[in-house]
Amino acid sequence: MENFAFHAPTKIYFGKGQIENLENILSKYGKNVLLAYGGGSIKKNGIYNKVYELLKDFNICELEGIEPNPRIGTVRKGIEICKQNNVDVILAVGGGSTIDCTKLIGAGIHYDGDAWDLVKEPSKVDKVVPVVTILTIAATGSEMNQTAVITNPETNEKLSARLKGMAPRASILDPEYTYTLPAIQTAAGAADIMSHVIENYFKSTEGAYLQDKISEGILQTCIKYCPVALQNPTDYEARSNLMWASSLALNGLCGRGKDNEIWSCHPIEHELSAFYDITHGVGLAILTPRWMRYILSEKTVDKFVDYAVNVWNFDKSDDKFELANKAIDATEKFFINCGIPMNLGKLGIDDSLLEKMSNAVIAHRDLKDAYVPLSAEDVLNILKMCL
Amino acid sequence: MENFAFHAPTKIYFGKGQIENLENILSKYGKNVLLAYGGGSIKKNGIYNKVYELLKDFNICELEGIEPNPRIGTVRKGIEICKQNNVDVILAVGGGSTIDCTKLIGAGIHYDGDAWDLVKEPSKVDKVVPVVTILTIAATGSEMNQTAVITNPETNEKLSARLKGMAPRASILDPEYTYTLPAIQTAAGAADIMSHVIENYFKSTEGAYLQDKISEGILQTCIKYCPVALQNPTDYEARSNLMWASSLALNGLCGRGKDNEIWSCHPIEHELSAFYDITHGVGLAILTPRWMRYILSEKTVDKFVDYAVNVWNFDKSDDKFELANKAIDATEKFFINCGIPMNLGKLGIDDSLLEKMSNAVIAHRDLKDAYVPLSAEDVLNILKMCL
Prior knowledge:
Dehydroquinate synthase-like, alpha domain, 387 residues
């Protein structure tokens, strides 16, 4: 186990009706609130009206239309609104995109330069405006960490930054809010959760046994409950387990102590969605089993055996590679059964930009420090397997 | 899954040499430090001198001699020292007893009445002096939660209180500090960790699958590594996994969402150690398998089957009770193999006070709200099984 720092200060309000705590939570910070959200589904599912009802003594300004893969332009717009309205606290209602966007807004309000600087150099973050969230999809884990992923379309960059002090102060996690999600978003969300865990599980760190046990538990939770939620969208048990899994998958429990290597599929997927604006979880589901097949070797096979036995419940056998391949097949089949389009072609992506993307991956994140080091050529090979 | 609030704000500095961050951590709070510790082992293992070396620009006063099962008198003494020295921050160096004691000191400094009031009515806690810890044993989890267990010898009470705001601000977890622990303390610590998990695992809550998966992972971690640490006390992998397991077992991950029932073995053990001042983890190890045998029934057997298969890796079989009993036997045998004296008689406890203790258990905590409701007579029966 590597040395690590662990800090997950977000206060979680989990369960049915927890939105009733909203006034209490926000009033610690002040009366001027930025309400930030995405495409307007919160007006259909009633959260929007409920927020206004609960916050009748607050001054609310709005940032609406935060896009999936949130863009730096939207962040800049949000910062302007906050400055004009002396915003004390930001309320993000939505999924990872909305929450990520508000983290950079909160960090950027008191920063003199352009907010994109903070993505490039997160150490510049100083005084911040706090963020509180109401989560509407189980996926990114952004509700319980300080990471934000922001896209800069001018430079075709989609970068991840750990913004100090920008873990949400509180997050309201009501599983019932995910009842009305489109099936593909439920499935892509589960794929996102699983990818966060898998990226940390497959590392060469010695002796981080406890982290791996927690990881296996989160993966089993997704495997058990994503199909249930797809079959019956209002199954509270499934929705609550997926939602809590989302937060625990990326709050440090699976990864701290295993920080010796960087992730593999996320940096590749970030280029895919920077170039093609695809759904992050779909990109990860497509990449993950292909990446697994590509890196399977004598050196990595034992980890795949653990994955096969402890996550997929296959019986131990003498043929380690057979077992590893069964687990990879199971991973791919699971995503297919969840209704995820499992080829880039199905998303309208051909081979024309694969080489450019592969080079961009390595330019933004040198994958020589990954679990299995990857060159631009390796990334290209993996992307070709995804076509 | 029940509704819950989860908040684990303690910043963890985990690994070799993390004490080097001490000055940095404490200087946020001020220069006047109370250094609190137990029986003086910190002078032998070098931590005491290291603290003075690192804090040469601080004003340090001391509270030494905090006893196992810390007493309210020691708390009162600590509060007096803090008031006299205008203490800004308390540095607890030790295990759960020392940390628990300092939490109540921190809560009591600005409280006008007697500190015991706060144990009885934790909602009275208002302004507090923060606590930072350096952990020297993997056991209670006190390093990452706001609970304190304090004994009042005047009333033969040992009570547990959740003191708002008293989760340590930061905890330094260096597994190397546990290399020199006596074997019985390593074993009793592991039993304590396992008991925290088992108390939450065995509940009738529906659908808290993720919590149970995390619980199974922590239990497997203790079962794997406690024997290794006993065999080779300087095995870093074993010590680091046990230490992180200690914190995660009782920071809310296993229990939040399963708060519908109260614990069973802890309330009973608290009377044992209030009456006889025995080691908490030893008392729990003795009680746990007996309690399991006592509550095994048609109604509870399925949970024991999960425990047998997912924690002890027994193959599923048709005879559920056989499987349950195998798991209970394995639990008892595990503690025996760890060198824990597994009968009250071995601790010099006879049957003379069993009835008085059983009544005291129910007087302090009505176990009708436990997983399997227990009367004073039930408690007496369980205690008799432990003789």
